[in-house]
Amino acid sequence: MRCLKTWWVGCLWAWVVCGVWAQSYPSQPIKLIQPFAPGAASEVALRIVAERLGMALKTAVLIENRPGAGSTLGADSVAKATPDGYTLVASYNSSIAPGPLMYSKIPYDPIKDFQHIALIGVYPQYLIVRTDHPAKSIQDFIQIVRNKPGTVNYASAGVGTSGFLVAELLKQTLSLQMTHIPYKGPAQAITDLLGGRLDMVLTASATELVKAGKVRVLAVTSEKRIPMYPDIPALEEIAPGVQAVSWVGISAPAQTPKAITMRLEKEILAVLNAPDMQARLSEPALGLFPLTLGSDKFLDFIQKEMRTWAPVIKAGNIRVD
Question: At what angle do helices 41-57 and 258-273 cross, to 10 degrees?
Answer without folding.
Answer: 110
